[in-house]
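My current task is to audit a protein record that another person submitted. What it holds is a sequence and that sequence's fold in token form. Thanks in advance; the entry in question is below.
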Amino acid sequence: MDESLLSGHLFRRGLAVGIIGGRVRSWLLGTVLALLLGSWSYSAPDFDRMLEVVVQRGGNVAAQRFQSWRSLVAAGGGGTDVERMTRVNEFFNRQIAFGDDPVIWGQPDYWATLLETLGLGRGDCEDFVIAKYFTLRLVGVAPEKLRLVYVRARTGTGDVASAQAHMVLAYYAQPDAEPLVLDNLISEIRPASRRPDLSPVFSFNNEGVFTGAPGKGDVKIGGIGRLSRWEDLLKRARAEGFE
């Protein structure tokens, strides 16, 4: 990610079942089954159409990667949030190779959709985070528990230490809880206290853009329109079948 763009981002940015004649209405049955299978943040995606989009970008190799992702989504709704996050985090950290935007997209800073990342099999830190965020919502992790977080990541030690702009995904079991951090640099999901190398700058999700960290005086500075790249990404994701 181009660090010179970072400061600019800061400123842009009781189920009722009717029984008739002893039979449950069929349209309500679908709702009941959906609730039993888990809470979905999206309507069921059109996987066949998504596969077509992915294949157009990456051919047969991308198709295999997509089918692995589809299996992950199909089986990912079970277990705890932490178990779901572990599966999703491991999947993308193994399946996607890191690459810089100028090399992949010919642009200094491009935010790829989940299907673009699956299609090419490459992405930078934002692309890893976006792919994990959308997938976790699909497998039933509540969106209000997830934040995409811009951080300054410290690398090196002593006189050669430096900080670079980076993005991670944070999970909050409760609004004031210590977050768990999902990162492409370190595959282990760790609590924030075990990532002293990261200094949060601001965070965002589908609800808006925030300064600070949740539970520690964070302030909502606006809706998603304050972060134009995120707003554009959400529009492109909807066009690909994500609601």
